[in-house]
């Protein structure tokens, strides 16, 4: 019988590859035999040293043992193996001494010892090398003998190959580094000095330290280790982007340094393109968003390569930014108002990813245009102050204001007009000089104040075939304003009569007649039709066309078209067509009492109604009418002879003319061509055309 026992005892050092094994083998084969085989364990050494407050520089590490390591703010020395992992962490005591016991540093292995306020974890990667605020590394010595010469590297590390003896008297030198105070431009936590917007330089003399030793002053250097050779002076106009190091100098020695990253100014401003027309389905290329931005006090627009653009909360399917900063709006983008955000980042390698601007906004409005067609629109000021509703005006069988074009607008507006150049409507916000643009969804965009247009109450407005926008205040006056929509500037047109004398009148709306390049309006005091000449030779001449009956009327909505001038009156006047020669008007439909109307139509498109009107031509001479029947007392003004080409003239102010009434047209046994009857069954006047009776209807021939 064989009994086999194996005892394998392992003692390993983390990540060092150094270990021993002992084997115990027992065999029983009719007798007992025991043998021990031993593998020699690698020798380990202790390591100890001291942290010094060194005030005389990094040549030799000396001074007074540091007492900054306390229970609440300890320092640590981390032992690091060749693989870069922590083997052991020793706590520095209050006297500045650290000890690493036996069992961790193996003979023949090269280790690093790191001084840091961060403790390592055995087997883990090395923590960040950092000291408490206001302290910096002076140097390190591993000689163990006087004068304790520095290893020449001011980095908080000692590299040591373990020999046959324990290691003692290793030294880390530390010293006070400037603890710079926060300012408007400097952040102590990040160590960044941000050059202010509009400036290209930093004034480092504005920085102070909270721990400046007596008799010392702050100096600035280009290297981590401060020396007279790398000192920078003066420091009142330091250009970014670069790194400098602050040190204390007592007249002889330099202290450890504090890194300060000086970042060039990267400044951005919001970009509002809402006043720039962007049409749905067309898109646009808008001016550079960099126009208002600057880098290092220079225009980013001129040097866009100095920064990188970062999209923030941005939909690139709506708009993108080209390398030169131009904003490219997609033709497929839906109509709407969009606000996007962006940042600029310093392209300098010393600051990339850290020197980032604040957020800036980009606002664009993508508008859906109207169609230049026969549709009529009215804008109606609401009963509640401050709102206006835009609606279509339909005339299929009666006047209706439907459907609405979007929701009621705030602010309220008037002087609404259709621009045939871009197919958008424009208006003036009530009691202001703010120009508004209205799209086909009823969205109203304020595109800004009109230069040279006084603040006022503009109720009358119209746009000609070239896109010139004309507005007039409602009050009695002799000035018409011509607005350039693109530049948002107004010029004055003085209104005069045929004698070139200023002509004042009240106007509630305007209509453009493309045939003669004139505006038309109705004088509300007597109903006369006025024309305003826009032709250069007679610009601003007002002609009283006539047509009024002396009664006050208010045509608040006027519509111009190649087919004529139309008006929709307030207070139940209805929709009428005006004769531009005589001023006579014919009512197409009556309406209920309405107030606050303003009319809109594309002046280059015809106006279509269920029937048309043609005014009689009474200008040509004819044969006087010889016979007249009247219930008036006396014949005035040469009546009936002043009615040309008639056989009989009938006149009455309070009586009607009754023609033959029959139960139905079939009651006439032998009709004659041209015969008129009133058909009671059909409720209409009928005319016999030699073959059939037809009701008389409005029509044009």
Verbal overview:
- With 701 residues, the protein is mainly β.
- The chain contains no helices and 57 strands.
- The strands form 15 sheets. A 6-stranded mixed beta sheet has the order 13-14-20-19-16-17, with no helix packed on it. Strands 4, 5, 8, 10 and 12 form a 5-stranded mixed beta sheet that branches. Strands 22, 23, 27, 30 and 31 form a 5-stranded mixed beta sheet that branches.
- The chain is rod-shaped.
Q: Report the principal-axis shape.
A: rod-shaped
Q: Largest sheet, order of strands side by side?
A: 13-14-20-19-16-17
Structural class of the helices, strands and pairings? Answer: mainly beta
| Relative helix content | under 10%
**Residue-averaged pLDDT:** 88
Radius of gyration: 48 Å
Note the beta-strand portion.
35-45%
Count of helical regions? 0
Instruction: Give the number of DSSP strands.
Output: 57
CA-CA gap between termini: 134 Å
Q: Report on the biggest sheet.
A: 6 strands, mixed
| Residue runs with pLDDT of under 50 for 5 or more positions | 1-41
Pfam family, one: DUF6923
Organism: Flavobacterium qiangtangense
Domain DUF6923: 385-588
Protein name: DUF6923 family protein
